Amino acid sequence: MEQNTQTPSNDGEIMVERDEKGRIKPGSILNPGGKPKGIKHLTTLLSESLAEDSGEGSRTYKEEIIAKVIDMAKKGDMRAIELVWDRIEGKATQSIHNINQNIVVSTEAKKAADEAIDEFLQSYSRKKTQAT
């Protein structure tokens, strides 16, 4: 048996209808002041603009920007090099350590982890060499 429960907003208006298990009922308006239908997202507008012909030969704006970043990287611009590298290899991850928590790793576990890392790196190097 379904129960009609409604969640009031801070100003007392009814915003969301929920069933007896607290789930939002189909058709409920979750964000009445949200983006109207038919309005394009900023990312969509930017992608469409970058896909347009730049007027510089037969390149799009996106192709012009890529060519400029690569040219800057070739000239030694470290920010451009970092940008290109991050797009090709992915951004480097950074570990976060809790200094208040002491973790003890046995010598055997450390040795096994080191061996696994060495094996992975050797395998990775072989694959890179075979690919070239």
Characterize the structure shown.
With about 130 residues, the chain is mainly α. It has a domain at about 60-90. About 45% of the residues lie in helices and about 5% in strands. It contains four helices and two strands, in the order ββαααα. It has helices spanning about 40-50, 60-75, 80-90, 105-130, and strands spanning about 5-10, 15-20. Strands 1-2 form a two-stranded antiparallel ribbon. A hairpin with a 5-residue loop joins β1 (about 5-10) and β2. α2 (about 60-75) packs across α3 (about 80-90). The longest helix has 25 residues, at about 105-130. The termini are far apart. The mean pLDDT is about 80.
Concise overview:
This protein has 132 residues and is mainly alpha-helical. It has a domain at 58-92. Helices cover 45% and strands 7% of the residues.
Q: For the residues shown, what is the average pLDDT?
A: 78
Q: Helix count?
A: 4
**What percent strand?**
5-15%
Estimated helix fraction: 40-55%
Q: Numbering strands along the chain, what is their spatial order in the largest sheet?
A: 1-2
| Rg, Cα atoms, Å | 27 Å
N-C termini distance? 66 Å
Q: What's the SSE pattern?
A: EEHHHH
The largest sheet, given as strand count, sense and whether it forms a barrel, is:
2 strands, antiparallel
Low-confidence stretches: none
Strand-pairing-aware structural class = mainly alpha
Shape: flat
| Counted beta strands | 2
